[in-house]
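ARCHIVE CARD
Drawer: 12
Card no.: 0347
Subject: one protein chain, sequence and derived structure
Cross-reference: see card 0346
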Amino acid sequence: MSERARALVSTIVVSTIVAATVVGAGPAAAAPLRALPETIRVNVSGLGTPSATIGSTGSSLTVTAADGRTLYRGAARTVARTNVYRLADDGVAIPDRRTAPNDPEERAIRRERLREARRAERELGPRAIIVVPFELAALRSPDEPIGDPILRADRVTSVRYQADDGLLSFNGRVFRGTLEIAVDDEGDMIVVNTVRTADYLASVVGAEIPATWMPEALAAQAIAARTYLLTHLRRHRAYDLEGDVRDQAYGGLGTESDSTVRAVERTAGVVATYRGAAIEALYSANAGGITEDSENVYANALPYLRSVPSPWDKLAETSSWGRTSWEWTREITAPQLRDHLLVRGIDVGEPQRIELLDLAPTGRVMRARVIGSRGSRDIGKDASRYYFGLRSSLFTVEVRPGGEPETVDYKDADRIRTLEGLGARRVGTSYRVVRDDDRKIVAFFVTSFTFELPARFEFKGKGFGHGVGMSQWGMQGMALEGASAERILAYYYRGIALAQVGGP
């Protein structure tokens, strides 16, 4: 830990003065102060995966079973799969097809498997096709589709990977530490990375914000990420945290850099606290100019997660990749919205209008009602982001009639794709004519297109994410004005103090 960080912890008493990067979990109970562990376990495969290809960036890797048996050692990539199709003469017992599953989804899966088997039998002859529930295989060449079986089981089983030299790669990403095939709380196959906590934090900082941002912004992000980690440890049976925005974005080696490592080292062991307990250090990419009280987004009213102005969020407007986190527009036709809602379990028929019933003082939507041809459904708080496919709940919406014309520059490919996706009809094309000295036309160029737009819902909003706690664009804006990491954290998390808990 640097002398600056030691001084920070020993002297600061934080007053009540007044973040694709969104922490997805809601507020948790206050966490007791304790040293962070040297290593943590991170789910790096998302919501489960049917296939995980793992290899080494060095010359070889070692794969072991949960009981310590060495299953494989060599240079080949390995692949773990669920529900692998094999020919019956591979020596695997054929599952009893007379067993009727009770779950409708399982019955549908079984029917599809039988159809696949029949198609394969027509192509390969009358050889039975079986489904292996779990298999580990070695891929001897890049073109090999399945590989030589190493291990088979009637359910997903734990398999551990260690690089003999170099690092481990999983589906194109490189990770420090070890990897393990595990089973999540829902019984799905996942890949868990056991990694040094300091390395995890350095990767999170680089995944959540650009590594080129101001050092004080990186330091503030490091403290927030460490605090979030402390608060959310051990929330799952097989691992500590999700490696995506359901907890914190984590990219392995690919999102580390010298600047993010320095940010973690400069703040080593420092966390944000409120009345002696680690806070729920929520953050989002852009608060849209003002952050939100926690109870207007989640269930709990936390005294340090209070709404504060965040004028620096407008800085995102200067970034080609970040400007749509400041202001954005989403257009969607009624049939598109119907299908979008159906996938998310809401069936109101053809949507006819959307009413914004309750708004927070900041303007964020706390309750919306979608009214359709077959009924209506109320959507509460931050859920509107999910159900309407929006960047934030700070939005307005109106129904736009069909038949409106819009002229688009021929170079505006993004807008043209948007209009084509809406089903807009191209009704005109404008040209620039080039004539010679005799006024004869020698060339002409397309300059713009005119579209006739369909009836649609138009959402206009600001911000990206839930808007509670620290705004990452606001954090960068404050740092550019000379604010320290301590000042940034004190502004967005009211009444906090920084504490040294030990560890990375």
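Annotation on reverse: The mean pLDDT is 87. DSSP finds ten helices and 27 strands in the chain.
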